[in-house]
Design a protein that fits this description.
There is one protein chain. By secondary structure, this protein is an alpha+beta fold. Helix content is about 30%, strand content about 10%. The protein has one domain: Alpha-Beta Plaits (2-Layer Sandwich), CATH 3.30.70.20. A two-stranded antiparallel sheet has the order 1-4. Strands 2-3 form a two-stranded antiparallel sheet. The N terminus is likely disordered.
């Protein structure tokens, strides 16, 4: 994930958006970047369960945050995304085939 490759400089945000705009598959939101940049302690993940197609990708990419519920669709089962799982949570968001995951 390119998040880890960004240099911590004054132009980091510009570098992020330049890379984001070159990657049409990247659904990483500006709100997530703003939260991370201003040093907020936690990120939150949300799944629109009505749109979930139950493929299981999110649960396999980031089991620390997502799981398949007993009734089928994926669900978030933590209040806050653990710091060590932020990259994989964003990867799950980016990989979701129906774009029903939001991480911010």
């Amino acid at each position: 994930m390119f998040w880890n490759n960004l240099q911590k400089t004054d132009n980091t945000k510009d570098e992020f958006w330049a890379r984001r705009n070159n990657d049409s598959e990247d659904h990483y939101t500006q709100n997530a970047w703003a939260n991370k940049a201003k040093g907020d302690i936690s990120m939150k993940a949300v799944v629109d369960r009505d749109g979930c197609i139950e493929c299981g990708l999110c649960a396999s990419v980031c089991p620390e945050v997502f799981r398949m519920a007993d009734d089928g669709p994926a669900e978030v089962y933590v209040d806050e995304v653990p710091a060590e799982a932020e990259d994989s949570a964003v990867e799950a968001q980016e990989g979701c085939p129906v774009s029903v995951i939001t991480v911010e």
